[in-house]
């Protein structure tokens, strides 16, 4: 079986998306424990990981826009799904941290 054409980019989507989600989970855990400085630091780390994932994704979009079709594979779908889920999770984590912060006052 041949390796997908953009495997390195796909793995970046999965890796950075996973880092983003993991940091968002840690942010919620920190907020639950009352450590809002750490919670906000973890949200920031989540956002940085998403920026890295977006850079990888932008490369694929640029490739496609220039007429070089991006190969669709199950790994590509998984990478994109992982990224979008991580974005949604980070957004929800920010809200949850804010709620914990408000109710702790």
Automatic annotation (TrEMBL):
Task: List the protein's name.
Answer: PTS lactose/cellobiose transporter subunit IIA
Modified residue annotations for Phosphohistidine:
78
Q: What Gene3D superfamilies does this protein map onto?
A: Phosphotransferase system, lactose/cellobiose-type IIA subunit
> Which cofactors must be present for this protein to function?
Mg(2+)
Active-site residues, Swiss-Prot/TrEMBL:
78 (tele-phosphohistidine intermediate)
The UniProt record gives the binding positions of Mg(2+) as: 81
The yes or no answer to whether the keyword Metal-binding is present is yes
InterPro entries found in the cross-reference section: PTS_IIA_lac/cel, PTS_IIA_lac/cel_sf
Q: Which SUPFAM superfamilies match?
A: Enzyme IIa from lactose specific PTS, IIa-lac (SSF46973)
Keyword Transferase among UniProt keywords: yes
Q: Name one GO biological process term.
A: phosphoenolpyruvate-dependent sugar phosphotransferase system
* MF term (GO), any: metal ion binding
Note on how the cofactor is bound? Binds 1 Mg(2+) ion per trimer.
Which keywords does this chain's UniProt record carry? Magnesium, Metal-binding, Phosphotransferase system, Sugar transport, Transferase, Transport
């Amino acid at each position: 079986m041949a390796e997908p054409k953009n495997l390195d980019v796909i793995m970046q989507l999965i890796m950075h998306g996973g880092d983003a989600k993991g940091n968002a989970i840690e942010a919620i855990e920190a907020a639950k424990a009352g450590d809002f400085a750490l919670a906000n630091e973890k949200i920031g780390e989540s956002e940085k990981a998403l920026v890295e994932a977006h850079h990888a994704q932008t490369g694929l979009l640029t490739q496609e826009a220039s007429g070089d079709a991006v190969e669709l594979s199950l790994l590509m779908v998984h990478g994109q799904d992982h990224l979008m889920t991580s974005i949604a999770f980070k957004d929800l984590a920010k809200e949850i941290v804010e709620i914990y912060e408000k109710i702790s006052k």
